[in-house]
Amino acid sequence: MAEYRFGDNKKTLKRAEAIAGVLIAEADQIASADQGVDVDRQRAVEFPTLFGWWRHINRTATALRTLVDAGHTIETTPLVRAILEHTYSMIWLADVGAAGIAVVEDSTWENRKKLIENLERANWKLPDGVSVGSRPSTIPAPGTPAADWHNKIKGEFDSFDQMDTAFGNADMYPVYRNLCDYTHASAWTAFGYLEPLKDGSVALRFAADHKGRANTIWTTVCLIQAGLIISPMISGDPLNKTLQSAIRDLGIPNDLLPQRRPKAERKRPSMS
Q1: Can you tell which superkingdom this protein's organism belongs to (predicted)?
Q2: Quick one: which of 69, 146, 231, 266 has the most CB atoms within 10 Å?
């Protein structure tokens, strides 16, 4: 019997599917606990947002599994993109801490402002009481070291490329870009349902070919990463045993969470 090795293969897929089911079930149990959870006080500011993103990852992974089981293929890719983005956002927020909440609020306010301005230009009638409002009061005063840090990490939050670069060698950004190709209107989303024939004509497909195993396998990796962020913040670290078992069974490194690169190493190498 061939030795197991983590990769884009049937054995890894089988393990990933089983592990994802266990992680989602245990996460659901924690989230539905009637007595709530006790949280590390040092993480009290950022925990609610992290919890919300963690639940979004788990619920989206559940939706992905449902669609895959129903025979859907490239249609599931936007869900994988959302899972990846929210996982890295959790890693980012856990790193920057409470300062990241001001960034999330600031970014959300900016997006709301742009939306309302777009609606007004299009002459949409806004419901009573809907307005842009003031910029969040949590934003640091301009010209201060806190404002400089706010602007830097806001650039990371607003750009997956910058976020990925801050935590490594931007090795996940190409994956994110590829997922975007199947999220936005593109040749890829069209060609999935077309099959060029030898005579130059094109056959129309009812469904796109399956994109392979990577989406399902990497979703499980993201579930593990998200769990490694949230579980230690909850009293008793309830997912620790399951997460460590998942890492061993899947055959992936223990140091699964990207770490912020030291300042001296952050500059990208010249491409010239």
Answers
A1: Bacteria
A2: 231
Domain that holds residue 240: 10-97+148-259
The pair of three-digit structure tokens given for residue 88, joined into one six-digit string: 């890295």
Distance (Å, whole) CA 172 – CA 170: 6
Q: Enumerate helices (H) and strands (E) in the chain, giving the number of each.
A: 10, 2
At which residue do the structure tokens 């999220």 appear?
A: 183
For the chain, list the strands marked E by DSSP: 194-196, 202-204
Distance (Å, whole) CA 57 – CA 60: 5
Tell me, yes or no, whether 190 lies in a domain.
yes
**Which among 78, 54, 76, 57 has a CA at the least distance from the CA of 65?**
76
Q: What is the pLDDT of residues 174-233, one digit of tens each?
A: 999 999 999 999 999 999 999 999 999 999 999 998 777 999 999 999 999 999 999 999
Residue 186 is encoded by which pair of tokens? 């593109």
In-domain check, residue 268:
no
Burial class (CB within 10 angstroms; exposed 0-12, middle 13-18, buried 19+) of 161: middle
Return mean pLDDT, the chain.
92
As for how many domains the chain has, the answer is 1
Nearest to 114 by CA among 129, 126, 132: 132
Asked if residue 122 is part of any domain, the answer here is no
- Asked if residue 166 is part of any domain, the answer here is yes
- Looking up tokens 């609606």 gives 119
Q: What are phi and psi of 23, to 5 degrees?
A: -65, -45
Cβ contact 109:133 at 8 Å: yes
The answer to whether residues 50 and 93 touch, using CB atoms and an 8 Å cutoff, is yes
